[in-house]
Design goal:
It is built from 2 helices and 4 strands; from the N terminus they run βαβββα. With 67 residues, the protein is of the alpha+beta class. A hairpin with a 7-residue loop joins strand 3 (35-36) and strand 4. Strands 1, 2, 3 and 4 form a 4-stranded antiparallel beta sheet that branches.
Length: 67
């Protein structure tokens, strides 16, 4: 499992998090609600807990075996 923080404009962060959720190579275990930065910042954060899907993990194992 890997923890990832997306940081940027609200639209960009949401778009990228939505894109990652559709990726067949990773599985998102947890996705936080958007968190606004402190002060007058226009940026937001979304935290994700992700891992490789089983199919992606198998591909990596095969590739490592060919080296």
């Amino acid at each position: 499992m890997v923890k990832v923080r997306l940081w940027g404009t609200p639209e960009a962060v949401k778009r990228f998090a939505d894109y990652l959720e559709t990726s067949p190579r990773i599985h998102i275990n947890q996705r936080s609600e958007p968190c606004s930065d402190r002060g007058k910042s226009v940026y937001q954060r979304i935290y994700l807990e992700i891992e490789l899907s089983e199919s992606a993990a198998e591909i990596i194992k095969r590739l490592k075996g060919k080296k």
